[in-house]
Fold:
Amino acid sequence: MLRPALAAACRAALAALVLAAAALAAVLGAILWDMHQARRAWRATGSGASFSRDGDVCRTADPAMVAQSFPCRKPPLEFRVFVIGSSQAMGTPYVHQDLNAAADLFFRMPNEGGLSTWLREYLQRLMPRKSVRVINAAKGAGDFGVSVETMREVVESGQADIVLVLEGNNERPSGDIAGPGIQGIVDGIGRRLRKRLDDLARLAESGRLPTYILTVPNNLRAWMPQTDGPRAEVSARIALAGRGIRWTQGRRRPDDPLDWFLLGCTWEAARDFPAARKAFLRAKDLDRSFFRMRSSWNDEIRRTRGRQTRVIDMERILFGYAKDGIPGSDLFLDYCHLTLTGNRLVAFEVAKRLQADLDLGGGPLALEDAPLSPFLSGQQRRLRRLYLAKKAKWLVSRLLSARTPVDAVNFGEQAELYARHADMLAKQVKLARQSPR
Structure:
């Protein structure tokens, strides 16, 4: 009798899990559909503008942007910064594009915690007599061409003091870019990026607008690259990770990203962290997907020159903050989106550079000048809901959308990471309740 009852209970539990996954997938699908429809309606207006004007007030108009409004004409004592880029610059997942009702209803988040949030805090500390406004002009899923068009609008407005550009994780192959091979595609995208960087520098010069372009940091140690080969073979290679340096090197194929990633894991286990980072970087540069910035593209940013254009090498700066010099889940939530700590570090380094270049004074700047604690204590429950929603999203993705064994590994690790963040916040809430007032 026990076995049939146990089997029935298992079937019921499995059915409930499938229904829950389907419900979550339906909610996420509704959000994406609403966003898609909003963007179609915006395009149908024919303007294609990032910003709209209503009298003396300007507003973000593109549904891929964060909803914001600000005076079209900058007040005399205002210092205005525009942050341009895609979701990494926007501050995803803490900051989301909320020009659609479904996303706003589902996430119910404070829409703070990205680069713009912390940069405003640091600059206000350095310029107490000014009113600092940091406008988050990033667009979710946009590439560098989109950022150039946003830059054009900012220059034409004549109301910016500084522009920051953090862009590069959405550079994809297009019809005019073909091989031979993966390297041919990478080189073709690099040439397109070079042109867009030059366009950006010319726009900055035409508007006499100081513009800082950041090299793009990525998750190296906690994001496995996509590779070619039969599913069973790839699964077997992942399972054999950690066999030792001699075994891994002896079977490494020079152009296979997964082999390089596994070699990085092996060097990491041997505590040779410089060798591990080199292998992880090579794995990223050979990745068959195009979700992370290639080293050669970051080099194009480093080579950018212009009278008003400056480069902040954020990729290398974050090497200095990352555990063992290898960025992973200590700074990133997935392949490119930064944690709260990661966003704050980027803003801190940008603020230090602006302080030096613009001679802002204000004395030495400390990381704690934009403290995390008030943000965390004020938004613990909302953040925890976000982390739990993201955990569910990655679990559903693993069940329904994992096309390769690499997807299954990455999606599972992201679900576990968000679960750890949620547990951490739950403990903080519990401690806060127990603490004497």
Summary: The mean pLDDT is 89.
